[in-house]
Amino acid sequence: MTLKIYGIARSRAFRTLWMAKELGLDYEQINIDFATGETRTPAHLALNPNGHVPVIDDDGFVLWESMAINLYLAKKYGAGSLYPTSLEDEARAWQWSFWGMTEVERPVLTALFNRALLAENKRDAEAADAAEKQLVQPLRVLDGALAQSANLLGVDFTVADLNVTSILSWARPAQIDLSPFPEVAKWLQICAERPAARAARQLQRE
Ligand SMILES: N[C@@H](CCC(=O)N[C@@H](CS)C(=O)NCC(=O)O)C(=O)O
Question: Which residue out of 34, 69, 72, 97 has the highest number of ligand 1 atoms within 8 Å of its CB and is therefore the one to mutate?
Answer without folding.
Answer: 34
